[in-house]
Amino acid sequence: MTPYEQQAYRDLEIWKLKIRKKPSLFNYAAKSLQNRINKWIPERVHHAITVAIEKMVKAVLFGAKHTTKEPRKDSSLQLREALVRERIEFYRKAASAEGAVTGAGGILLGLADFPLLIGIKVKLLFDIASIYGHDVKNYKERLYILHVFQLAFSSQQGRNEVFKQMENWEYYQRTLPDDVDEFDWRTFQQEYRDYIDLAKMAQLIPVIGAAVGAIVNYKLINKLGETAINCYRMRKISSLRIVKH
């Protein structure tokens, strides 16, 4: 193992501790409040939002595979991650610029930021998967991308549950449905919406919307990128253990 790999896997263990930590009292309180708010929202509204996000993500999910490069073969972890960080920086700047433009445009353009940002996030994950050597044309690889997305943008409680699945991905993926329509889109959209609601609401405020949009989008992409790096590091180690056994 190279010095770079040793440091990367030490960093991975620190990241795992953060992901595994139990929800704090604040986390529980925030989640409880959000659950109460969700109960007040009529079921038909929940259904409409779920369907809208499902269609949005599917469109990007199945469209991005045609614009993503072939999986990168036979590269060191250090080279792969240098390329990944370049892609993260590219998408950070794109998301920041998009957030500033839509934030400056008031409520209507602010609302348009939601699907645009999802597209940027999913495309970033496709690029990262490909750089780590995974074929995004494979349906199960696209499901893994959805799990990385969930892990990055869920409550601490939701994060704990998704992480358990991802820790043993090679085994867990065998239990996944063969039809993407069977994916739990309701939980996916609700966790994502609850996570970013407060941060993104300020983007709709006149005057400060542009600055908020730029900063929030930059940070969201940064979080997603770091989550993806650690998820693929974890998966590499897991696959090596399976090979040894």
Automatic annotation (TrEMBL):
InterPro entries: EcsC (IPR024787). It holds the Pfam family EcsC. It comes from the Bacteria. This is EcsC protein family protein. It comes from Daejeonella lutea.
